[in-house]
Model the fold of this input.
Amino acid sequence: MSATPDQIIRPEILSLSAYHVQPANRMVKLDAMENPFNLPQSLRNEIAQLTAEAPLNRYPDASASHLKDRLREALDIPPGMDILLGNGSDEIIQIIALAVAKPGAVLLSVEPAFVMFRMIATFAGMSYAGVPLKDDFTLDLDEMLDAISQHQPALIFLAYPNNPTGNLFDDASILQILDAAPGLVVIDEAYHAFADASLIDRLAQYPNLLLMRTLSKLGLAGLRLGLLIGRPEWLTQLEKLRLPYNVGVATQLIAEKVLQHIDILLQQASSIKAERAVLVRALQAMVGVEVFPTDANFILIRTADAGQVFQGLKQRGVLIKNLDGSHPLLKNCLRVTVGTSDENMQFLAALQASIKQPIN
Ligand code: PMP
Done:
């Protein structure tokens, strides 16, 4: 008799629900922190030419050395630090967790945080501990330090700015966490392009610090390229877990080309920041909407009956993210990605209508 999945699959995997991606068919898509702008036509033509000539019959350069050189220049990677590439930064989280997952090892983060921290802890067979943020979504340093001394985490993940709340944590508190941590601390700067702060310059000072970035939010979510920046002694070990061809030929070629025009992406990020300011002001002026501070390309808001408002927006063709029910601190919270000014106007109109006239 052959086995059933419940007999063979690990119980903690059986009880997981898969990462949910909402279908967006033809809606105004403001749910996934994507950059709403495409690349200029001339650059898209160059990319078309490049991919037409790409050696797709060959495996990619396993070390992706040209791409790493471009990343070094474009992102000002500090001298002496190495780069590890992932198929999105999701994959890097997994590589790090797999590397440190000794029996009983703990991954510590805050709650609410990016859900993949917790999920990947489970994939890797690590224990997970989440320290609740304060009601205003700031870091609870005392609770963090207690949790560090109690759990002795092998790995701490903090997103800076945080997803889904959008705020930057206090950097003095992060430095105290770095001092107290017995293991690695990974600062996930996925939203760096929209914040005016980074901990990248701290790499030289803290031997247990690693820093993660991604090209996804900058405008290349479809390419899947994330990077980890850190000391060679850590990255040499982590490289052993990276599958040899995790970054494909097309991703390498296109990312190299686009990074030569990083100014275009940065210009788009600065337009998104300007649109964000307009959107925040409009939301603050709306009765019945609480707006939380953001340094990312999305805004967290709270309304009465977020579930109804979310459905109302959906009926009006606008897709955002409903966070109600995902954590007690996120009661009645919704997260909206900053889009083009047209998209933001459509969202604001649909939000106003959904608050005034809830659906039945
Ligand atoms: N970190 C954070 C904080 C995120 O919000 C996300 C995406 N939502 C990621 C990492 C993963 O990004 P990617 O895999 O596209 O690089």
About this structure: The CA atoms of residues 206 and 277 lie 34 Å apart. The chain has 14 helices and 13 strands. The radius of gyration is 21 Å.
